[in-house]
Amino acid sequence: MILRRRAARLAALLAAGAVLASCSGPGSEPTSAPATSSAPSGTSAPASPEQTPSPTSSPAPTGTTAGTTTPSPAPSSTGPSEPADDPLAGWTWEQKAGQLIMVGVSVSDPAAVSAEAIRDKHVGNLFLHGRSTAGVAATRELVDEYTALVSRRSTHGTPLLVATDQEGGKVQVLRGPGFSDIPEATEQATWSPATLRRRARGWGDELAAAGVNLNLAPVMDLVDEADAADNPPVGAFQRNYGFTPQTVVSSANAFSAGQRAAGVEPVIKHFPGLGRVTTNTDTTTHVTDDVTTRDSDSVRVFARGIDAGARYVMMSTAVYDRIDPDAPAAFSPVVVDGLLRGELGFDGVVMTDDLSAAAQVQGWSPGRRAVDAVDAGVDLVLASADPSVAPAMADALVAKARTDPAFAKKVDAAARRVLAAKAGLSG
Questions:
Q1: Of 154, 220, 302, 339, whose CB is crowded by the most CB atoms within 10 A?
Q2: Is residue 336 domain-resident?
């Protein structure tokens, strides 16, 4: 199998023990599965044709720039306030920053750059992106190659979050022996909650057997039925659980409960909703929602997901004119800290949609994207489709934390939330 051969080749590369410098320029060729992130007003990346979506894995544009900041050399400097019982006691800034990044690895063509990010840049989380028909056993072999890189030096011995997109329909990364073919969310929404929960438990068991502990699903975006075909990120691909708040809440919560019962944490997405946009944040810039407000039903469905026990929420990168017109949601303290954490009371892990290759965010350097997201209150920055930018993101977080005490506290708070969530994973 391609996946197994590539994993073996990666293992041989790492066994050679070469100490390679991490790179922030273009690395491996990403797969052509787009993400569902959106772009701020004022970005300059050109629009590209719509493609089959993968909400967290979009193709990397050529010429992606690296972060503009570099870290100071002292790897042993720790955070400002660390009592002995602090879970971050003894952690370096590099190790802390690494817990805030999730790096992508292609399931069809694994590349050394992702492994180097874990080993050399202390990145603490992995995302399986692309498309594979290799099956459960081969996927587990690939995951094991990466989890074997975890050491006290690299991630302070903390296990990786291993994530993928296993929604169903056109957004299903993993297929083949041992994996079910999962139908679109629109079909799942026609089942009773009990049936959906039971089947989602089975799909979760398959992921757990493959070594995956985080599924970037379900979609909780509320789509208008009359305009579904004109909603490229969600409605056009039948990723929505029906067209009413009731069906979205009932079905998405049933899916989440089934996954959680299997030991796989679900991630509800894409807050505060991508169901009302008319362009795709993966492939176009200036994606803006001029309809959604703080009190919209499309926001309240997420509140119901949080009330049902969601521990992870993914941020959209669209701009929401009627909430905060000045920044994409993933970069907006108004949306992250004010609306999601403040008004909705969410105290779990907040992560971004893909910030590596989505057209919407190309107006920022990779380092700036990571810093702006964490500064807004995000805990986990996703660099899925173009893993070569992960080192620049890590370096920028470290540099900013060393020079800005207020930002350093945000890094510490985010790292603690990620560690607490990892401690709560079953198995």
A1: 220
A2: yes
**In this structure, what CATH number is given to the domain that contains residue 120?**
3.20.20.300
The confidence score (pLDDT) of residue 79 equals: 54
**CB-count burial class (<10 Å; 0-12, 13-18, 19+) for 1:** middle
pTM: 0.84
Give mean pLDDT, residues 307-322. 98
Residue 77 lies inside a defined structural domain of this protein = no
Is residue 44 a part of any domain in this protein?
A: yes
Number of domains forming the structure of the chain: 1
Q: Is residue 22 part of a domain?
A: no
Of 152 and 265, the structure prediction assigns the larger pLDDT to 265
pLDDT digit string (tens) for 18-73?
A: 322 223 233 333 333 333 333 333 333 333 333 444 444 333 333 333 333 434 33
